[in-house]
Amino acid sequence: MSKISAGLLMYRTLEGRLEVLLVHPGGPFWRNKDAGAWSIPKGETDPGEDSLLAAKREFQEETGTKPQGTFISLGNTTLKSGKIVHAWTFEGNCDPAAIKSNTVKIEWPPKSGKLQEFPEVDKAAFWSVAEARVKINPAQIKFLERLEVIANKASWKTSV
């Protein structure tokens, strides 16, 4: 059975420009990766857990910010790993430099038997949708496209 993750795509409009918050995974594997490495804040759901509640929990764990507002479904996508990611979008704002992420323990260096603790997210940033298309994991581009459709229906200006 495929693993299920859930996440939130926070957006804001700044001077008429639509921007989205993406996070960069922490840990040594991701340290020198940029294009295609960023993500919406997301994480695995617990068995039987409501996906939207899981998305809110994961957002808060990875950013230190409690998500609030109206949540609009962006549907789901399947990553190369086979994991299915469900996402919602909401309007909000935060200081990306002030994020406080939970930590994870991983074996590092690989096969060393040593567990080290790293932040799950090491940085966050707001990006225009055009910039986000370059930064985000390619499988998650669908979420940006769906947000743009919603934004256009709502008559937001989405200049890049």
UniProtKB/TrEMBL annotation:
Record keyword Hydrolase present: yes
Domain of life: Bacteria
Keywords attached to this entry: Hydrolase
CDD domains the UniProt entry points to: NUDIX_Hydrolase
GO biological process per UniProt: AMP biosynthetic process; ATP biosynthetic process
Molecular function per GO: bis(5'-nucleosyl)-tetraphosphatase (asymmetrical) activity
InterPro entries: NUDIX_hydrolase-like_dom_sf, NUDIX_hydrolase_CS, NUDIX_hydrolase_dom, Nudix_hydrolase_domain
Residues in Nudix hydrolase domain copies: 1-149
Protein name: NUDIX hydrolase
Lineage summary: Bacteria, Pseudomonadati, Verrucomicrobiota, Pedosphaerae, Pedosphaerales
